[in-house]
């Protein structure tokens, strides 16, 4: 029975897959346009998100150090348009939205430890005010 089903499955049409993938990529984002933004935002976000608002100076010190070395290394390997860096703040907000959704789904919001509670409330406030975790004008 299973062999009949398996034998009835034809091979994948690679040309259709390629066209479908290209179409989906263009709907989600223009191919190659956000990769650098995502690279920067994800790395920066996870480098500094552990520093709460009570450690804001430390957050900015680490963000500044990260961006200095990251941009230096990145530009050695690839070109980087200034507009990309300017738009990175939007992706920091997007990254925080994604994390906030995960927190909402995974954490028991009625039983948070002190760090979780501080982070959750600070994150919520930033999102409500459309503020990124790091103001890149203070860093770059």
Q: What are the key terms here?
A:
140 residues; mainly alpha; 6 helices
Structural class: mainly alpha
Order of helices and strands: HHHHHH
Tell me the Rg in angstroms: 21 Å
What is the end-to-end distance? 64 Å
Question: Rough shape?
Answer: flat
> Beta-sheet strand percentage?
under 5%
User: Are there runs of 5+ residues with pLDDT below 50, and where?
Assistant: none
- Indicate the mean pLDDT: 78
Strand element count: 0
The helical percent reads over 70%
Number of domains: 1
Instruction: Please give the count of helices.
Output: 6
Main sheet properties: none
Describe the structure in brief.
By secondary structure, the chain is an all-alpha fold. 70% of the residues lie in helices and 0% in strands.
Task: Give an overview of the whole structure.
With 140 residues, the chain is mostly helical. The chain has one domain. 70% of the residues lie in helices and 0% in strands. It has 6 helices and no strands. The longest helix has 25 residues. The protein is flat and about 60 Å long. It starts with a helix and ends in a 12-residue tail after the last helix. The relative contact order is 0.12.
Secondary-structure map:
Layout (H helix, E strand, L loop, with lengths): L1 H7 L5 H15 L6 H14 L7 H22 L4 H25 L7 H15 L12
């Amino acid at each position: 029975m299973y062999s009949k089903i398996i034998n009835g499955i034809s091979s994948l049409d690679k040309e259709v897959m390629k066209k479908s993938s290209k179409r989906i990529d263009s709907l989600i984002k223009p191919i190659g346009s956000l990769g650098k933004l995502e690279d920067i935002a994800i790395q920066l976000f996870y480098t500094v998100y552990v520093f709460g608002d009570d450690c804001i100076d430390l957050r900015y010190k680490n963000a500044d150090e990260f961006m200095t070395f990251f941009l230096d290394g990145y530009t050695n390997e690839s070109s980087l348009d200034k507009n990309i860096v300017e738009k990175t703040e939007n992706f920091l907000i997007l990254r925080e939205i994604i994390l906030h959704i995960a927190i909402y789904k995974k954490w028991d919001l009625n039983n948070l430890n002190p760090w979780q509670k501080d982070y959750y409330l600070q994150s919520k406030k930033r999102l409500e005010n459309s503020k990124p975790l790091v103001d890149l004008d203070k860093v770059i």
